[in-house]
């Protein structure tokens, strides 16, 4: 009896193993598609917002037809799809790969622009200094990297169709970074860290001379040096403020205008 049970168990096990082989493999719907067909379908998925499916099609296109013109276009489209999907690391990796493989491609300027956009849209945490959270904890790395990417585009491809927008975004980023430094300086001042406040405001003045936030940065320097009893430095800051902003509202106890300083395009 025990022997029959063992044989039956062995038979069931063997059937279960063979049954796995009876199940059909998942059919690849793209099998046999031409490069143009793959590209067309991938573009349709991209336009429909099916970014994951689009990436799959583009990657199959590149692997099956690596030496055609569609392959290079697919590499660019993959970077854009990841960007639209919100996958910043994958998008940046795809951009860097394309620039490295095709530094002289006629559309490589677009990839520099896209790299800037990817970092530009990764500023949410950086710009959260407008909340009541500690602004000194914000990271401006993405904003600086976006600026550098746009700057490379403007310097290498001054006639690119993307350069005008890149320059406008650079101006925005300069204003944003300067405003960020002033927010941090004010944060330190409110907590009595006057040396840190003065240093941070000085950094804004030094690094972002043309930004509107410089006006408030100079005022923070005045107040910080005044609180530290450093009269000469306080007077120097006031002199520079009066010279560059003779009608500054800070002289009448007001604050800088709340107009949308970031509206540059």
List keywords for this structure.
mainly alpha, disordered C terminus, elongated, 11 helices, 265 residues
What's the short version?
The protein is mostly helical and 265 residues long. 67% of the residues lie in helices and 0% in strands.
The H/E string reads: HHHHHHHHHHH
Instruction: Give the total of beta strands.
Output: 0
Structural class: mainly alpha
Strand content: under 5%
Query: What number is the mean pLDDT?
Result: 83
Relative helix content: 55-70%
Shape: elongated
| CA-CA gap between termini | 87 Å
Number of helices: 11
Largest sheet report: none
Oligomer: single chain
pLDDT < 50 stretches: 129-137, 256-265
Q: Radius of gyration in whole Å, from Cα?
A: 29 Å
Describe the structure.
The protein is an all-alpha fold. Helix content is 67%, strand content 0%. It has eleven helices and no strands. The protein has helices spanning 2-22, 35-47, 51-64, 69-85, 88-101, 108-120, 141-156, 163-190, 194-207, 214-227, 231-244. Residues 129-137 and 256-265 have low confidence and may be disordered.
